[in-house]
Design goal:
Helices cover 36% and strands 26% of the residues. The protein is built from four helices and six strands; from the N terminus they run αββββαββαα. A hairpin with a 2-residue loop joins β2 and β3. The N and C termini lie close together (8 Å). The relative contact order is 0.17.
Length: 172
């Protein structure tokens, strides 16, 4: 079982960060003792743990659209020759994901798990942050091996996704 599924979120009261969604995420990172950097008021970078190593998480709040965006950059690079089968695997994976989706950051050829929350007329709550972080950890841990199997293991996208789904379906 993945360590990420047993995480306990200890977040500050919502009223302390109601007008600063990045501040609430930053408080969470500090509470988890993660390395983080806030280069701008509306942006935060973190190093987050995973059962497959660490990943980089970028969180940005877009004032004009009032959208809060989470991008989790997985720590692997997709060779050009594997881009098409990885994209096919991502499409198959995204059919199974309820919150967020996988995509390729084309500039670096890196898989990214992305979640975007609309906050127009509301504030980020601790429960929303917990849901997003749980999704990031669970889906990244669950499907990271799919990309490895397609890139280096010689598996087809269908075989790799089926293997990931069978493994997690068997967990209690």
């Amino acid at each position: 079982m993945s360590r990420s599924r047993n995480r306990t979120l200890e977040l500050p009261p919502v009223d302390e960060t109601a007008d600063d969604p990045i501040g609430l995420v930053e408080e969470y990172a500090i509470d988890q003792d993660w390395s983080s950097d806030r280069p701008y008021d509306n942006e935060l970078w973190m190093e987050i743990p995973s059962q497959w190593g660490g990943h980089r998480l970028w969180v940005a709040y877009h004032d004009d659209t009032q959208l809060l965006q989470f991008n989790c950059y997985l720590t692997l690079k997709i060779p050009d020759r594997n881009l098409s089968p990885v994209a096919t695997a991502m499409a198959m994976i995204n059919e199974r994901v309820w919150l967020g989706h996988f995509e390729v950051w084309m500039e670096e050829l890196t898989p990214v798990f992305r979640v975007v929350l609309p906050l127009r007329g509301s504030s980020l709550t601790s429960e929303q942050l917990e849901d997003v972080m749980t999704s990031i950890f669970q889906e990244s841990d669950r499907f990271y091996p799919v990309f490895q199997w397609v890139i280096w293991g010689g598996k087809s996208p269908a075989e790799a996704v089926a293997a990931a789904v069978v493994e997690t379906d068997g967990e209690a």
